[in-house]
Amino acid sequence: MKHLITLSDFQKETVEELIDRAIKQKKGKLRLSVSGKNLILLFFNPSLRTRTSFELAMQQLDGNVVTLNVGGDMWNLEIEDGVVMDGAAQEHIKDAAMVLGRYADAIGIRVFAEGKHWEKDRQDPVIDAFARYAGVPIINMESSLYHPNQALGDIMTIKEQFGSDIGGLPVTITWANHPKPLPMAVANSFLLACSMFGMDIRFVRPEGYDLDNAIMEKAHELAKKSKARIMVTDSIEKGFRGSKVVYAKSWGSIRFYGDKEKESKHRKGLSGWIVDDDKLRLTDNARFMHCLPVRRNVVVSDSVIDSPSSIVYDEAENRLWVQRSVLHHILGGARKQ
Ligand code: CP
């Protein structure tokens, strides 16, 4: 079963091929098809880019796509096993997964963390249940832990800027301020992707914003194979100096997980964690990246995101091209030419 739950579900060679195919499609040199295949997209949380690009990718590949918003278009789902279902949830996730698996050739799922208990959220229980019961490939469209399609689009964008050999490229991944604790998925997946591709990674975050230990261990394991370097620092100066790429993202603290008040207090004094002209001046003419949506003048200044250094719209566009590659890889189908 070819699930795509995290990028490391695939070998590096497969990831390279997916990106190469995305670049060829964008240049009009490759046309793929998944004619007659059926994709169901389940959204437990909002989306602009992921929903639009997945739906369009499937249509452009001549496949069929149905999108459901959980709690809006469909019944609320019970996640726990063995409970008496006399609350708000009308359908058990096991039944929903089994039924949707009968209709679809693959199921895409977006489900963020509940935000109360990290030990529970880090199991990605919804993705896990669908992978167990649906009987068809599951595509992670962003969960508590991972956003693999975003990472594919990000690496494609970096390759467009710097060429196909990106080993050793100095890349800064920086925590950024935000009024709310956000999921860690984008930071996790981008760190894993940079580790897989052998980059010179500067991971910059204030005290209290480390990623999950298992993610860091996986990043180091990938780095060992690819000869990537991973420097973790709370020094803006050290983390930004000489970088070619600055990737900004905010995420919530595991230390204060589920306690918004404590985290909010801890964040007071972190408003300086914005990517602005002063920080970009420390770099080697770095490109600015962010997965979007972004809070302007909180995460990044207008002057940076609107500057020629910013490649955020290329990144967003490239989601469409990589998803076409991913859907073709998972669903198969004849190549048209
Ligand atoms: N980057 C990203 O996944 O965007 P959406 O949340 O709008 O889908």
Please give a handful of descriptors for the protein shown.
337 residues; alpha/beta; Rossmann fold; 5-stranded parallel β-sheet; 11 strands
Topology (SSEs and partners):
Elements: H1 12-26, E1 38-43, H2 49-60, E2 64-69, E3 77-78, E4 91-92, H3 93-103, E5 106-110, H4 118-121, H5 125-133, E6 138-140, H6 148-162, E7 170-175, H7 185-196, E8 200-204, H8 213-226, E9 229-233, H9 236-240, E10 245-249, H10 260-267, H11 277-281, E11 287-289, H12 302-305, H13 312-331
Parallel strand pairs: 1-2, 1-5, 3-4, 5-6, 7-8, 7-10, 8-9, 10-11
The structure holds phosphoric acid mono(formamide)ester (CP).
Quick summary:
With 337 residues, the protein is of the alpha/beta class. It folds into two domains: 7-146 and 318-335, Aspartate/ornithine carbamoyltransferase (Rossmann fold, 3-Layer(aba) Sandwich); 150-315, 3-Layer(aba) Sandwich (Rossmann fold).
